Fold this protein.
Amino acid sequence: MAGAEAAPTKDGLALAQLEKSGSDLAKLHQFDFVLHFPSQKVAERSTLMLEGLAFATRVERGRSDTDWVVHAVKRLYPVESDLIGLRDKLEDIARQLKGAYTGWTAKVAEYRKE
């Protein structure tokens, strides 16, 4: 069908919400990407892979002994195509280690008051 628009991506929808919350998308943002793994050992193994991609990482126990949460933090410009590329990489790491990538959060970077 000519002229049909592609459906919005999860990352595109989240960026739109971030902007709606008052964030200046032209500024660097701190993103916290979240992954879950079945054990602490596997979660810690994932941090080596993530640090190789220039993420700062933190591991914490989730809601059970079989849920370990990895926070992979990175400062970057909120560009949808970059976030999609990172999503692909993070989903691949999670898949390799029998875990799950559950998405990201970012702090609002407000517009500068003139």
